[in-house]
Amino acid sequence: MKQEMLEQFAEVFGNHEGVEVFQAPGRVNLIGGHTDYNGGHVLPCAISMGTYGAVRKRNDRKLRFYSVNFAEQGIIESDLDSLVYSKEAGWTNYPKGVIWAFDQIGLRIDCGLDLLIDGRIPENVGMASSTSLEILTCVILRDLFRFDLSNKTVAMIAKNAEKRFNGVNTGVLNQVAMAMGRKDQAIFLNARTEEYEYVPFVLENEKLVIACSNKKCGLSHPEYQKRLDESYAALIDLQKAADVHALCNLDEEQLEVFKGVIKSPVGFRRARHAVSENQRVIRACKALKEHKIEELGRLMNESHISLRDDYEVTGRELDTLVEEAWKVEGVIGSRMTSVGFGGCTVNIVKNEAVDTFMEQVGKAYKEKIGYDADFYITEVAQGPRKL
Prior knowledge:
Elements: H1 2-13, E1 20-31, E2 41-57, E3 62-67, E4 76-79, H2 93-104, E5 113-119, H3 129-144, H4 151-165, H5 173-179, E6 185-190, E7 196-200, E8 206-212, H6 222-238, H7 252-258, H8 265-289, H9 293-309, H10 315-326, E9 331-337, E10 344-350, H11 354-369, E11 374-378, E12 385-386
Helix pairs in contact: 2-3, 2-4, 3-4, 4-5, 6-8, 8-9, 10-11
């Protein structure tokens, strides 16, 4: 891949003398849907699908960006003295935002860059391709300008860039999973305190398969904000009777005791999902520590049902992918991942069933939805690196 990136760089920018190549992973959340902003836990891991960058320092303050994914846009130019968000800048707002975020904490970028990007993560389907680009830019700047930064700090800088420069109200799941990923390990992350631990996630007889619905989704979906509001309203009701700072402070038994104070039936269902999902994440972490992949799969299936029935964020496309997956012998677990309303599912599938899974689910999806789903076999990968 390194040689391919060097050749692409030379084709766009004239030669590849002095060019360095980097890669940042993607991520998938194994379980923990909509628990992050409800003060609970998530269980993501970095995956081998990722974003590649070839970069070279310049002798001036000019920034030149080129994306293989948007080749028709050609080279997009900016400079270090105009680090402001603009709609016209398109995808380049993400690396520009990271440079801005470095500057905000006193880490000065003192020369321009030529940067070529090749993204291997599907866009606008909940796979956080923009965050991967931000993490990539962070590690490029850390290496080129010799900044002494931990991967945890990289994650926080990327979060700051996305939230304050690009205006995306994001949590820390994506950034932590990508910046701090380790091969064959998932990250058990408390989204409220940002405390975390690594847990083994070794697939010997199984594959991790992403099924993409090809229906766009994202944090800008109006129903996403509605779920935030409904969850917050349920929390306000609960706080009249219980000392809780977030829905996920409760377990299922405690929620049952206090359920009468939640005024809205819808609000109760939202709370029931947040509480039960948080407990599923805790149990999933225990299952991985005990190498019980089948138990993880069962919890993933339960998660999707709760996201479908109590939180109502799945939709016809994701439900079709998951329900058809459950029909295939050898599928250990399947659930929607990311925010829902479209996007992708994550599936753990026995090695011998992978081809059947993709063929059978793909055929049923095309018949029911009317267009194709895409499938990606991926691995639990390490964090960002220089190639």
